[in-house]
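Hello,

Our lab assistant flagged a job as stuck in the queue for most of the afternoon. It eventually completed. Since we weren't sure the result was trustworthy after the delay, we are filing this so someone can double-check. Below is the sequence as submitted and the structure that was eventually returned. Let us know if re-running is recommended.
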Amino acid sequence: MNLSQKFIEEHFPNPKSTVSTRREFLAKTGMGFGMLSLASLLKPAELLGAAPGESSGFSVPVHFPAKAKHVIHIFLSGGPSHVDTFDYKPELAKYDGKTLPGGNNVGFGSPFRFDKCGQGGLEISELFPNLQKRADDLCIIKSMHTDIPAHETATIFMNTGNLRLPRPSLGSWVLYGLGSANQNLPGFISLRDSGVPNGGTSNWGSVFLPGSYQGTSVNVSNNDPSKALENIRNPFLSLEEQRRQLDLVKQLDQMHKVKLHEDRQLEAELANMEMAFRMQTEAVDVFDIRKESAATLKLYGIDGVPQPGSNKDNKNALKDRSAAGNARKMLLASRLVQRGVRFVQVWCGGWDMHSDISKNLPQRAASIDQPIASLLADLSAKGLLDETLVVVNGEFGRSPGRDRNGKGDTAGRDHHNKGFFTLLAGGGVKGGISYGATDELGIAAVENKVHVHDLHATILRTLGYDHTKLTYRYNGRDFRLTDVAGNIVNDILA
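-- returned structure --
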């Protein structure tokens, strides 16, 4: 055989090579038939090796055994007063109307009684009778502190771990680590109502993480789920026609990747389009709380409570509407977790009380007391509390002194970043305990201090992640939620 014949034989197709006997064909493809049969028996989440019930979309392998699989972050926007809610300071009453040590403010003793609750004797304000009954579920961190007492800055810090530059939100980091457990719903959902903005995308955005990890903001003011999710239905095209469009766009994207290069932003946009398509079948159902039983609605206090838009006009109307709105959000948070959503952010505003705290705080506390207690009871009854970490806090606390030295019953409290509380319950934390302490007047955290970075590190630890190793490379460096700080609060972990 000369060289030219050998070249032709090695580099050009030979018709003989395309012909095989039946036995040869079965030998080559037999295993493939077996795998097709296996694929039909397995759930989609198991095809990539995930354990049954787990996500097939894990982005980063866990570093430790995980207790929690979901997080519900209830954000009390405005900064709730710690000394009137979960940080009892009887010594402060001795300074009521008197100059506090340091000479900068006039003391304001809490007008509310505190009760010892649960087996651990947690001291909880009388403003939360329902949460008092769930005391054995609660871990109260009393020694939180943050860097700056300004609403917008502190809010972004609590939700992203950064004061100034845009950074991925806590929910985006959680979703990046865990991946989605439901391919028909976003893995990170931010719930709000018309009266409570959620601070914009700075608090639920993914920034340099892929766009698929960004939170989906949902206004739940209306019980009609088609109105809660804007443009969820395509009024012009059927599902079949939309599917054909998406398939065509995917084919064009594949051609783009082969002939040019992969565009990560384009890939994220396509992923969002695919998610929007799939949400048409499941999202409307999960957001429709009218499908819940009468007993469940009553548990959350929704039954018989005036809905938004009610014409009821009396002193309790605002209180009732606010409680109903928060109850809907808590119930939706439970429903979303049941469907596999990894991170649910719940916005509950109205805690910025520079005046009339004696009048305003009881109303605001009542708007979350039964809804949050019911959420804990609901998750526990469904066997989900052990795998769902519930976090309740604001961006900071409020001063032990009177704001601008206000007098009498109209006094309020100013912003305060040196000491405040965070409530934790469920997935991976001990219940019925308090951790850390402020000084005897509630001015500053002094014992087992917990910074925002420490809280974030601890949240990630309950999910199985070492906060120093959950990183994403961007612009030539590895970024993480806790920047270059943060210590896990091991003493509160179960």
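-- support follow-up --
The delay was a queue issue, not a problem with the job. The result is valid. The longest strand covers residues 138-145. The chain has three domains: 3-46, 70-229+290-492, 233-286.
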